[in-house]
Structures
1.
Amino acid sequence: MDDGVLQELEKMARAQLQEQHAPGEVEALLRILREDFWLTSKIALPARSKDYQSALARVRVGEPVQYVVGSAHFFGHDFKVDPSVLIPRPETEELVQLVIESSTAYSAPVILDVGTGSGCIAISLAKQLPQAVVEGLDVSEEALKIARLNNIQMGTAVNFTQCDFLDDRSWMEFDEYDIIVSNPPYILKSESHLMNTLDHEPHLALFVDSKIGVEQFYKKLALFAETHLLPGGQLFLEINQYSAPEIKDCLAQHGFHTELFQDMQGNDRMLKCCIAKEDYR
């Protein structure tokens, strides 16, 4: 009986979702709804059916399915998410992988994640590099509540701190690091109309007013790294593909040697930056 009800629900859901989603996306959404609101549900059939239809209604109006189910898959683990944090993207997994591959120069790297959000970068690094000491900071206390819950759930020991990074008076609280990593807000508000699914996500973590605003954040990161990177340290950044030349120039002006990496779509997405040991003041 349960299977028959599910088949009817999925038939209805497929018809509704195909108006807005490609066939592959529809099947992916159905799989998530099936697993989270049907197969793992312990409640009776009528209530389970109601929950499924309520979740479907939220997805139909554009709410990200990750918020509907309360989790997002990232680097092999399911992270708790809600509208206070950005949903982790596959491109950011590539940033984490780049950091891991570049960390072999350190026996026990000290790492800082600036703008940590759900903590997915910091926690993934802590799990993959158990010898590392990892910190994460964010301006949003609501985001940090989610990061700390994920920290407990994943069994990691990341230290999370609330801090307005753009206020450089707060920088005195922080130590020196082998690695600084950041996925800062970099989508221009003028580009937001191309990304309707972002309506439900925290705009503070996504958008800046202009290219000048993008560059200002990276300039802050460069200034911070100048004084908080240990000799031989590295700075890793996720960037707006359309601002790559300006961001590279900004880092170069602060003495950084940069290496640009493309994401899985072939877009300029990541910068690896370092200051030669002889250039440190």
2.
Amino acid sequence: MLPHHPGRCAQLHGHSYRVEVTLEGPLQASGPAAGMVMDFDALSLVVSERIIAELDHRSLNDVIDNPTAENIAIWMWRQLAPELPALAELAVWETQTACAVLRRGDQLDLVR
């Protein structure tokens, strides 16, 4: 529910979100992730533990005060950034044609 929205979204409703996480950094020179910024399996584990486990099958209003796509993206960024120093961009797709995108350097302190 979007408590400040004047339309239908103020009522309980649902979405099947898609999240895109983009990393940017040097390729690892050796080890199991050689030639990668980060192994996709390791990235998937962080996303699963920090985002999916916290939000899947829950009311977003219990976690995020005003769960707009933009606020969800900010919340996700704050969850991922400590684990992913190479985090460069995050997109939260609410529908197939509507998304909110955050990029490294964007001001995240506008929403608490």
